[in-house]
Design brief:
The protein is an alpha/beta fold. The protein has helices at residues 10-22, 33-42, 59-68, 85-94, 106-121, 153-165, 172-180, 188-201; strands spanning 2-6, 26-30, 47-51, 76-80, 98-101, 128-130, 133-136, 141-144, 147-149, 169-171, 210-213, 217-220. The model has no long low-confidence stretch (mean pLDDT 88).
């Protein structure tokens, strides 16, 4: 099982990392909200352990952006030093699945992780579909008109972002943030990836699905504006 731990306290992070790895988990770590959001939005995790008080982007904001902008449904266990009902409710409303109040025992942390993942295993991942274009988020298989399309990982990630927002326009800044986080490449990189995506998704077919909205971004839809 692959777990992302987002926690800025080095001592807590180290203890959690060592304990989870001892119990057979594969663990990635982040010590700030921006890095945590980038990893959570671009990598696959079975669960995220998320602290609330983080530099850059707090746990509430990270959780909400992951749910609403990135459209990720990865289970989230939120860590909080606050036991007030309002704080716990705020975390749940932001999209957390459960919470654990600090200080906590590492054995309870693992028990909570196991309980959350048991509940989530039965939930199937819905396919993304726009017109005759289909992407399976579980297998990353992409087909159009029944034909399998071969995309590189960056192309698949970009396509998934556009399909999740379809038919809405996605600003180029949002796409760049989701693709590269704060480590932004030059401005032509996104354009190049869109061009490569069009060669595979649109060029062999009669109707284009990827549309440029000049000065704003891109949209994936059956009909152009």
């Amino acid at each position: 099982m692959r777990v992302l731990v987002v926690e800025d306290n080095v001592d807590i992070l180290t203890n959690v990392l060592d304990y989870l790895e001892l119990h057979g988990y594969s663990v990635d770590c982040a010590q700030d909200g921006i890095t945590g959001l980038h990893l959570a939005a671009t990598q696959h995790y079975d669960l995220i352990v998320l602290d609330i008080m983080l530099p850059g982007l707090d746990g509430y904001q990270l959780c909400q952006r992951l749910r609403e902008d990135a459209r990720r449904d990865t289970p989230i266990l939120m860590l909080t030093a606050r036991d007030a009902l309002d704080d716990r409710l705020r975390g749940l409303r932001a999209g957390a699945d459960d919470y654990l109040v600090k200080p906590f025992s590492l054995a309870e942390l693992v028990a909570r992780i196991e309980a959350i993942t048991r509940r989530s295993r039965g939930v199937s991942v819905a396919e993304l579909q726009v017109a005759d274009l289909v992407l399976n988020p579980a297998t990353y298989q992409v087909t159009r008109a029944g034909q399998t399309l071969k995309l590189n990982p960056m192309g698949t990630r970009l396509l998934a972002l556009l399909m999740k927002k379809s038919p809405a326009v996605v600003k180029r800044e949002v796409l760049e943030m989701e693709m590269w986080g704060e480590d932004l490449p030059d401005r032509d990189s996104l354009r190049s990836h869109i061009h490569q995506l069009r060669l595979v998704v649109d060029k062999p077919f009669a109707q284009p699905l990827i549309h440029t909205v000049h000065g704003v971004g891109y949209r994936l839809a059956e009909l152009a504006e």
